[in-house]
Automatic annotation (TrEMBL):
It comes from the Bacteria. It catalyses: Hydrolysis of DNA containing ring-opened 7-methylguanine residues, releasing 2,6-diamino-4-hydroxy-5-(N-methyl)formamidopyrimidine. Residues 238-272 form the FPG-type domain. The keyword Cytoplasm does not apply. GO terms for biological process: base-excision repair. This is Formamidopyrimidine-DNA glycosylase. Its cofactor is Zn(2+). GO terms for molecular function: 8-oxo-7,8-dihydroguanine DNA N-glycosylase activity; class I DNA-(apurinic or apyrimidinic site) endonuclease activity; damaged DNA binding; zinc ion binding. Belongs to the FPG family.
């Protein structure tokens, strides 16, 4: 799933290629991707793209007073094409393309989604706050409002595992499964540690690890082409997605805890005092 650094990079990429261009048409191939109906996507036709930004993991194209909001979810992606087919993309096509945005110069992008779980979401609104997921977002970790004091206040009294808390978009916007693993590894902190047990020093360490990890990832992604971001993210992960490989810091073997539809990775030496975390799902499979 694209997280804050990748969505920020996509926003920069689209800004360089779409700002000031007029939308020729928006083709909807999968009606399920649309989460709003008024105004319709056709209301974007003939309007100029003024800006591209983000809200957490939501991509926001400001288009002549309206907003095209995109949430790529787990299996969605944006594919830029310098030359789109001139024939409109109709509903019911069997390709993974769910929606296409064509610009006046013939370029544009496709939104695709693979797999059986269709969670890619597109909204056309006059105010981003009308998108439920944006209206309930917590502060942006790289925004001015989330200083160390505000971060400490978010954690105060919460009897929640820190891994889950950092992924909760209503608490902090933009961090998902991958970067929460990376942040906790940088902070040398167990993902199962409860937020209300953190000392002041722990909170400062976690805050600094969060800011440094996200800033470095965002800067490193720069204005990479949309097609290069997935591979770049995978290559730069230290622990996430690297089960069985050596930790780049201490050399211990990176381990995994599996859940119903996701998993986390961590280094026992760096994060849990050398003790492997219980993986109940794997234990059941081995019985």
């Amino acid at each position: 799933m694209p997280e804050l650094p990748e969505v920020e990079a996509l926003a920069r990429f689209l800004t360089a290629r779409t700002r000031g261009y007029e939308i020729k048409r928006v083709d909807v191939a999968s009606i399920s991707v649309l989460k709003t109906y008024d105004p319709p996507p056709t209301a974007l036709h003939g309007r100029t793209i003024d800006a591209v930004g983000r809200h957490g993991k939501f991509l926001d194209l400001t288009i002549g007073g309206l907003h095209l909001i995109v949430h790529l979810a787990r299996a969605g992606w944006l594919h830029w094409r310098d030359n789109l087919p001139s024939k409109p993309l109709g509903p019911g096509n069997k390709s993974p393309v769910a929606l296409r945005v064509a610009l006046e110069d013939g370029s544009g992008f496709d939104l695709t989604e693979h797999g059986t779980k269709k969670r890619l979401a597109v909204y056309v609104v006059d105010d981003p706050a009308k998108v439920p997921g944006i209206a309930t977002l917590g502060p942006d970790p790289l925004g001015e409002e989330l200083d160390p004091a505000a971060f400490a206040a978010l954690l105060n009294g919460k009897r929640t595992q820190i891994k889950g808390l950092m992924r909760d978009q209503k608490i902090i916007a933009g961090i998902g499964n991958a970067y929460s693993d990376e942040i906790l590894h940088a902070a040398k902190m167990s993902p199962f540690k409860l937020a209300n047990t953190l000392t002041d020093n722990d909170i400062t360490t976690l805050y600094n690890a969060m800011i440094t990890t996200l800033r470095e990832a965002t800067t490193d992604a720069g204005e990479l082409a949309a097609g290069d971001l997935k591979a770049h993210k995978k290559e730069t992960m230290r622990v996430h997605g690297r089960t069985g490989q050596p930790c780049p810091v201490c050399g211990d073997t990176i381990r995994e805890v599996s859940f119903a539809d996701s998993s986390l990775q961590y280094c026992p030496t760096c994060q849990t005092g050398g003790k492997p975390l219980a993986d109940r799902r794997m234990s059941r499979l081995l019985k």
